[in-house]
Write a structure and sequence with these properties.
Elements lengths: L19 E4 L10 E4 L17 H91 L5 E5 L10 E5 L4 E5 L2 E12 L2 E8 L17 H18 L6 E5 L6 H9 L8 E6 L7 E2 L11 H4 L14 E2 H7 L3 E5 L5 H7 L5 H6 L4 E4 L26 H13 L10 E6 L7 H13 L3 E6 L7 H12 L6 E4 L4 H10 L2 E4 L9 H7 L3 E4 L19 H11 L3 H10 L1 H13 L4 H17 L2
Parallel strand pairs: 3-7, 8-9, 9-12, 12-13, 14-15, 14-17, 15-16, 17-18
Antiparallel strand pairs: 1-2, 4-6, 5-6, 6-7, 10-11
Helix pairs in contact: 1-16, 2-3, 8-11, 14-15
Length: about 600
């Protein structure tokens, strides 16, 4: 945004005119005065003596005086006219300056809002990176536990903490990859993260592509990840690897689909197949088709309605669409939606494409790491518990109340809420829940989980509103505390959720495992409680969470706890016994998909 700062400069008016001195000489009966003009040097030798003048001279002098007086009035009139004009100019300039300052302040305000929104988008992109990282790590570990060999290939991000990588080393061989008409060298690093073999690709000539503060959020993101996608395939071929499945994620690596089938399948990868997982179908960057040539693809072959041409902006190419079209299987991550709902209601312009390829489309829920989140084994809890023996949960509640100095009573309904993104939260609904709950002596514990994706100011505003209620049963912890996080899960009856689909923190899944009901803050939870006619191929998790807790508002949950405790306890105990970890349904769905595409 270009801001033009308009300023006014100081100015003065210089109006040259001769100095005028009025000299009056009065005689008896003489009432007229004379005006004398001097050259400004004080010489008055030209002054006329009235007493020695004749009548003619007196008349002439009077006429001269009258004439001079008229000239003076004319000059004064001219001066005042110039002065008034100057005043008008000054007022006009002041008005222009005021308008300019107003526009400048408006521009500064708009810039501030824009910068805040850019920051939000950047943080959202980092949140997406965490989402994918959580999924890749969790699923990869689950797959390896079931006897599969998994290797992950990543860019070597400059922001990466290499201390988390075990045995990292640089390979001696330098691998070359094609980009923008030339071959470019890449360093290859290998190591182990969470028991998973990891390969990092570090561009040499285009070293700035990934040597940045953030993983995503730059104007050249398409070029960056196109380079990585081509380099990854070049590395796989030249290193002699022959994977059964190339599992790619989101639009950042969606271009691997077209690259694989148009270029690499004949280079020793005839037995490999492509599975594309879409974590966020809304993110669909559109590019000029000519850019596809950067990685060696032919834009004229790909820019077609049945390939990469965007369904709405037909002059542009849609990389996400390319990943769907060119993959053998497409998995969309959702813990609450069915395949039909995604195609018809959540496709963000890709309904035609998804419907055309629906036979290879599948839906997978998220999972969570059960080894770290299990109330029977959780070492952070003061006492462990299970669905068969819930005494430990009451101990956890008392410990939580003591830690936060809440009124101690194991029979009080305790509600936890973890805030990670306020953009999708109806703040008025949340405040209403707190107001209604505190009237019934319900305890509320709010805790933030890392940097907010919707802005710190919005969080602070919410905190002020909640704390202004001045209720002894409300606590707001504006920091992340891992120990307290476990204790809140362990001591709560209800966990308020921003959404029942939470791929980053997996709050609803952890809540159910710890015997706390996940209840959406907004009563309709973006339509998750509605089951349209085209709901088919729904995951086990979606069916369970929607039918058990998805239809409940917060007030309905309180009503059931108070008036139908046996039914409530049955739901909670049943949820605790379900396995929604990475090793369960999520892993099974992907293993089935891998097996299916290997036979193609």
């Amino acid at each position: 945004m270009a801001i033009h700062a308009l300023t006014t400069t100081g100015f003065s008016f210089h109006l040259p005119f001769p100095k005028c001195t009025a000299a009056y000489s009065r005689s008896a009966g003489d009432r007229a005065g004379t005006l004398c003009c001097s050259s400004g040097d004080g010489d008055l030798s030209g002054l006329i003596n009235v007493s020695s003048e004749s009548e003619f001279e007196r008349r002439g002098g009077a006429q001269m005086a009258k004439s001079a007086d008229g000239e003076l009035r004319a000059k004064n009139s001219e001066i005042w006219q110039l002065f008034r004009e100057a005043q008008r100019n000054i007022l006009s300039l002041d008005k222009q300056r005021a308008l300019a300052v107003e526009e400048l302040n408006k521009a500064i305000s708009e810039k501030k809002v824009l910068l805040e929104r850019i920051e939000e988008l950047e943080i959202e992109k980092q949140a997406m990176a965490r989402k994918v990282a959580s999924f890749v790590t969790g699923l990869s570990q689950a797959l390896q536990r079931k006897g599969n060999l998994v290797e992950v290939i990543l860019p070597k991000y400059g922001s990466m903490d290499l201390n988390e990588v075990q045995g990292i080393r640089e390979t001696e061989v330098e691998y070359y990859s094609y980009y923008n008409g030339q071959l470019h060298g890449n360093k290859i690093w290998t190591g182990v993260i969470c028991g998973i073999g990891v390969t990092f690709i570090q561009p040499l000539y285009y070293s700035s592509f990934f040597n940045r503060e953030k993983a995503y959020g730059y104007s050249d993101d398409f070029e960056r990840f196109m380079y990585f996608s081509r380099a990854a395939l070049d590395y796989i071929v030249k290193s002699g690897k022959k994977p059964d499945v190339l599992h790619i994620h989101n639009w950042q690596t969606a271009i691997i689909g077209p690259l694989f089938w148009d270029i690499f399948v004949q280079q020793g990868l005839e037995g490999s197949r492509i599975l594309f997982t879409c974590h966020d179908i809304h993110a669909q960057p559109l590019i000029q088709p000519e850019k596809l040539a950067l990685c060696g693809l032919d834009p004229t072959k790909l820019h077609r309605p049945d390939r990469l041409q965007d369904n709405s902006n037909t002059h542009l190419a849609n990389i996400m669409k390319g990943g769907i079209v060119y993959s053998n299987k497409v998995a969309i991550m959702s813990s609450t939606h069915s395949k039909g709902h995604i195609i018809h209601s959540s496709s963000h312009g890709l309904e035609t494409t998804l419907n055309m390829h629906k036979d290879k489309l599948l839906v997978s829920p998220c999972g969570f790491e059960s080894s770290s989140w299990d109330p029977e084994k959780d070492k952070i809890l003061p006492e462990n518990y299970s669905a068969d023996d819930m005494k430990g949960k009451f101990v956890c509640k008392i410990a939580l109340q003591q830690k936060l100095r809440l009124p101690e009573n194991a029979s009080i309904i305790t509600v936890g809420c973890f805030l990670s993104d306020l953009s999708d939260v109806d703040k008025e609904d949340l405040i209403a829940i707190v107001k209604n709950g505190t009237r019934m002596a319900v305890q509320f514990i709010f805790m933030t989980t890392g940097k907010m994706t919707s802005g710190q100011k919005e969080l602070e505003s919410l905190q002020v509103r909640i704390e202004s209620l001045q209720d002894e049963n409300v606590r707001f912890i504006n920091r992340h505390d891992e120990t307290l996080l476990h204790l809140i899960f362990g001591g709560s009856n209800i966990i308020l959720c921003q959404s029942l689909h939470d791929p980053i923190l997996q709050v609803p899944l952890k809540a159910m495992r710890y015997g706390a009901a996940p209840i959406a803050i907004t009563s309709n939870d973006n339509g998750f409680r509605h089951f349209p006619d085209h709901d088919y191929e729904t995951t086990k998790l979606a069916m369970f969470i929607n039918s058990t807790f998805g239809y409940l508002s917060f007030s309905q949950a309180l009503d059931e706890i108070n008036n139908n405790p046996s039914e409530w306890n049955h739901k909670v105990f049943d949820a605790m016994t379900k396995d929604f970890s990475w090793d369960a349904e999520c892993c099974d769905i992907y293993l089935s998909a891998y097996t299916a595409i290997k036979s193609l």
